[in-house]
Amino acid sequence: MRSLAGDVIKQAFSQQTDEKLHRRLYAAICSCILEGSLKPATRMPPSRDLAGELTLSRNTVLRVYEQLQAEGYISARTSSGTFVSDSVLDNLDLRPNKEPVAVALEDHTRLSARCLELLGHASASPRQWGAFIPGVPDVQHFPHRVLKKIQDRLARRLRPAFLTYDAAGGVSELKEALADYLRTARGVRCSPDQILITEGIHQALDLVARALCNPGDNAWIEEPGYWGIKNILRINAVHFSAIPVDEQGMIPPGPTEPAPKLIFVTPSHQYPLGSVMSLSRRQQLLLRARETRSWIIEDDYDSEFRFSGQPIPSLQGLEEETPVIYIGTFSKTLYPALRLGYVVLPKPLAAPLKKVHNDLYRGGHLLIQAALAEFIREGYYAAHIRKMRQLYSRRRQMLVELITRQLGEHYLGSFSSNAGLHMILQLPAGSDDVAIARQANAQDLLVRPLSRYYVNEEKCSGLLLGFASIEEHEMAAAFSRLATIIRENAV
């Protein structure tokens, strides 16, 4: 039997485009109810009649009716039929008119002042692979099959602990392997229970800022320095002072500078300039931290890739019981998408920060952590680093030669040490490195402007050129295009 409600539903059904018939019918009835075409207390067509009108199976209609009833759109009355629910009136009263929807959404999506400030300084590149992208390793030379084989072996005798929430700050085997590696390779003084596994550097920095700072506290950062630290401090409402660096690292400020709660440094390879913090500066910084009861955050992000001389030992291991929180990551030594980093916490902070981390972030990736532990224990990690160190050294040397030959030695950065995954191409004073970088990015040359790493008005002009993720046979042609842009725009 035809009904007015059936005609209304049929018209709405014809306007739906979903390929799945039950989804088309569901959307049609919902729109009729919410737009008022089917008013509260309206009797719905019997399922058999509606199926006949729409040329659908009765099971399809019954399936949709059951879903609508479960969601409260319709209700069945014994021996009376199915009706649009009276409670839909409440939703219709709250539903805004169509015209002011955009305004209402804007009101609902008002962002916090801290979020707006972060957005104003957002610096993450939308592209993370290509010629001269800084900070990205060569992910194609990683022995993926080896790690996969280890992971598959562990998966065949999977422990339940690998599939639940992590409450211990990481897999114990990985923390033990890391403790041994860091003691040997970086001179870090730690035991496994001081290590916390995180999802990379940013989570580690956010944890430290949240756990140790109150809104309005002060921090010192390097000038120029990593943009990620600044944005994490901004979102946590921590004020910061940008302290200049020179060829010996951070220049200790005078006593008039407000005492910081946190001091962020990259002493083994300053980011982005490349200088190494001298022993005297390290000792001064440790003394200052003890006097002001500050914590030094040592970011040791790419210390493994030093191409000449002896490795630079960590600041954390310089003395016993230093006020240093040591942070590292596998993003540079293995690959960024792994999303694994680590924090070596001073003993008094280990238990509380692990508890905070567990409550805020709910760590995971336990199977890959266990596989990585065996990858380290079996010597694959050290072998991969040795191999990549040689590869990156060749690529860096090739880039130095290209800069010298096509632009001149004066374009080589002043502090650039023979280490890391990028180098500084120093532009003549007054050059607009932001405009040059923008033009280069448009041609898929993913350089970054040095001036964007500064906070204060006094800035140096230059470009960060990553050499790790570009093959040697591609580098010459790519750099020639970049050199042309520089010659056309540099002062």
Describe this structure in words.
By secondary structure, this protein is an alpha/beta fold. Helices cover 44% and strands 12% of the residues. The protein is built from 17 helices and 13 strands. The chain has helices at residues 4-15, 21-34, 47-54, 58-70, 88-94, 101-108, 113-120, 144-156, 172-186, 201-212, 227-235, 279-292, 347-361, 366-377, 380-406, 433-442, 472-489, and strands at 74-77, 81-84, 195-198, 218-223, 239-246, 249-250, 262-265, 295-299, 324-329, 341-344, 422-426, 448-449, 462-466. Helix 11 links the parallel strand 4 (218-223) and strand 5 (239-246). Helix 8 (144-156) packs across helix 14 (366-377), helix 10 runs parallel beside helix 11 (227-235) and helix 15 (380-406) packs across helix 17 (472-489). The longest helix is centred in the last third of the chain and has 27 residues, at 380-406. It is elongated, with a radius of gyration of 30 Å. The N and C termini lie far apart (83 Å).
Features:
17 helices, alpha/beta, 491 residues, 3-stranded antiparallel beta sheet, 8-stranded mixed beta sheet
Summarize the structure.
With 491 residues, this protein is α/β, with parallel strands linked by helices. 44% of the residues lie in helices and 12% in strands.
State the helix count.
17
Q: If you average the pLDDT, what whole number results?
A: 89
- The residue ranges in which pLDDT falls below 50 over 5 or more consecutive positions are none
Taken as a percent bin, the fraction of beta residues is 5-15%
Spatially, the strands of the biggest sheet line up as: 3-10-9-8-7-4-5-6
The percentage helix is 40-55%
Global outline: elongated
Order of helices and strands: HHHHEEHHHHHEHEHEEEHEEEHHHEHEEH
> Terminal Cα separation, in Å?
83 Å
Q: Can you count the beta strands?
A: 13
Q: From the helix content, strand content and strand pairing, which structural class follows?
A: alpha/beta
Largest sheet: 8 strands, mixed
Please give the radius of gyration in angstroms: 30 Å
